[in-house]
Amino acid sequence: GAGVSQSPSNKVTEKGKDVELRCDPISGHTALYWYRQSLGQGLEFLIYFQGNSAPDKSGLPSDRFSAERTGGSVSTLTIQRTQQEDSAVYLCASRHRDRVDIGQFFGPGTRLTVL
Amino acid sequence: TQLLEQSPQFLSIQEGENLTVYCNSSSVFSSLQWYRQEPGEGPVLLVTVVTGGEVKKLKRLTFQFGDARKDSSLHITAAQPGDTGLYLCAGYGGYNKLIFGAGTRLAVHP
After folding, report:
1. Is the predicted pLDDT of residue B86 greater than 80, yes or no?
2. Does A32 reach chain B within 8 Å, measured CB to CB?
C-alpha cells in the first residue's frame, strides 16, 4: 500500500495476557518508529529501527515491552503480561533515512485496551 | 532531557476567529515540525522549520521558528471547522528520536 498500515486497529485483552502489534512501513523507508499515545496526550517515543543498525530501545517503559523488525520491513511490538496502564494507542511511523525534513509518516495506530 | 511545552492545552473558538498556539523549550533544536492529528488517525506533518527566525505559510496557517531555535508558534487566521484537531509540535532530540509536545486540542465551532 501507499501508506503505513497497522494491525489490528483495536485490541482488547485481559490483564496478564501477551499482545502483538504489527506495523507495515512504507516501502523503501529504512527508519521505523514506535510511539505510545495516551488519551488526548502527545506521543511517547518507544523504539527506533534504522536499517541493520542496533535499535534504539531507550523509550521502552519496561522489560515487558519488546520489538523486532524482520527483513528491514515489517515490525512487531510485543507486550508481555499486559497491565491496565498499558492501555493506549500505539502508533508506528516510518521515514526515509535521509529525509528528516519531510517528517515521519504515521499509521492509524492500534488502540489497546487492557481490562 | 529535551522537553517541548505547548500552550494552550485546549482551545475552543468560533469559526472566523484567529488563534495562536505556542511551542517552547529551554533547549535548542536543529528543526521543529508541526503535525495535526484527527481522531482515529496518526499525525500528519504540516511543516518543518529549520532556520532561526523562519516564517512559513500554508494557506491560513503561519508557522514561525524563534531566532534562538528554542520556540515556535502556529497562527491560524479565520479558523474553519475543518481546522479542528490535535496540533503537535515535535523536534529531533538527536538524529533518531522525535520529541513531541503534549499537543493543543483545537475545536472550531460553526
Report:
1. yes
2. no
Gap between the Cα atoms of A82 and B12, Å rounded: 36
Residue B46: predicted pLDDT: 95
Q: Any CB–CB contact under 8 A between A47 and chain B?
A: no
Residue listed under C-alpha cell 506521543 = A43
**Three-state DSSP string of B1-27:** CCCCEEECCEEEEECCCCEEEEEECCC
Q: Tens-of-pLDDT digits for all 115 residues of chain A?
A: 579 999 999 999 999 999 999 999 999 888 999 999 998 678 999 999 988 888 999 899 999 999 999 887 899 999 999 999 999 999 999 988 766 677 889 999 999 999 9
Residues of A with Cβ-Cβ distance to B50 under 8 angstroms: 101
Decide: B43 and B36 in contact? Cβ < 8 Å: yes
Query: With 0-12 CB in 10 A as exposed, 13-18 as middle and 19+ as buried, what is A107?
Result: buried
Nearest-CB residue to A106 (from B42, B95, B97): B42
Nearest Cα to B48, choosing from B74, B11, B67? B74
Q: Provide the 8-state DSSP code for A46.
A: E
pLDDT for A52:
83
Tell me what pLDDT residue B83 has: 96
- Which residue of chain B is at minimal alpha-carbon distance from A37? B102
Inter-chain CB proximity B42 and A4 less than 8 Å: yes
Q: Is B94 exposed, middle or buried (0-12, 13-18, 19+ CB in 10 A)?
A: exposed
